[in-house]
Amino acid sequence: MLNKRIYMTILGIVIVGSAALAGNQYIRPAKQANESAQEGVLLSTAQADHKVFNNLQELESFADVIIEANVISPGTVEEFFQNGHKIDAANKVQVKVNRSYKGDLKEGNEITVYEPGYMKDGLYVNIEGYKIMNMSGKYMLFLSKAPTGTYAVEGVYQGKFDLNIKQEVKVTDYKTSSYTLQEFEKLDYVGHEIETFNSLKKEVLSKYGSK
Q1: 190 pLDDT exceeds 90?
Q2: pTM here?
Q3: Residue closest to 28 by CA, chosen among 47, 12, 45, 16
């Protein structure tokens, strides 16, 4: 079925679209031997069959939890194995709730969120252009809750928006050459579905951005 949500449950943690990392990858040009991980960021982007939300109201109805939050400690890469083989990885990050709009979380609660992207040795691996959170952002998060009490971002790139970044994503923001670290940190999205992302973010900023 088109536009269905794909969830892969590993150790009781729900991660969106994780199976897609095994194929359909678009690897960006490799670093030169003398280029350190600190000098730039390259993309490795995977596609996944996922729900595409037509508007903010639809996204809100799918999410178990809607919060405004900030990251309280740097994320870590968590790898998942099956029968001794690595089958997936995700960014594991702790966030603190500033405001709660849906669900049972309260201001001041701290939760673990798994993100469909991670950085390793200067290569940013992601699904559908998702950009991981950082400690300088103020984020609107639309989350799904796993039985373990951890959370995953709803709709891959459609469930996280940095309220501090007001400008729309442009075609030129996506590139196949390396980003500087400064460029990368200022981005909220690194995929091709620019129109969908911008449309949702415009609604998010209008409803939640001034609160």
Answers
A1: yes
A2: 0.81
A3: 45
Report the distance separating Cα 45 and Cα 20, nearest Å.
10
What is the Cα Rg of the chain in Å? 16
What are the tokens at 121? 């040795």
The secondary structure of the chain in percent helix, strand, coil, rounded to multiples of 5, reads 20, 40, 40
Q: Are 141 and 66 in contact (CB under 8 A)?
A: yes
d(CA 76, CA 119): 9
DSSP string, 98-120: EEEEESS--TT-EEEEEESEEEE
Q: What are the pLDDT digits (tens) for 48-77?
A: 888 899 999 999 999 999 999 999 988 888
3-class state of residue 164 by DSSP: coil
Q: Are 148 and 13 in contact (CB under 8 A)?
A: yes
Q: How far from 90 is each of 123, 152, 199, CA to CA, in Å?
A: 13, 10, 26
Reading the block at residue 177, the tokens are 């050459």
Residue 54: other Cβ atoms inside 10 A: 11
pLDDT digits (tens, 9 = 90+) for 86-116: 667 789 999 999 999 999 999 999 999 999 9
pLDDT of residue 152: 94
Three-class secondary structure of residue 62 per DSSP: helix
CA 40 to CA 184: how far, in whole Å? 9
